[in-house]
Write a structure and sequence with these properties.
alpha+beta; 78 residues; 45% helix
Length: 78
Amino acid sequence: MGLLDEMEIEISCPKCERKFQVSLRQVQQETTVTCPGCRKQIKLKSTGDDLSKIDKAQKDLEKTIEDLNRNLKFNIKL
């Protein structure tokens, strides 16, 4: 995923309902996390559609940044 790997989202424990943060990388890799409240083991599951939307948004952002850098370098050299 790249730039967004470390971005965090909030989830709720299905047992105690405590909210806590997990990274998109953890979701993508479908890791098991432990609730900091009740210590329940939670298997993260991702839906391919959600992750593909995030991946597309990341690629679009990276392309925009590259284009911006290219334009800035061009303008500075003039």
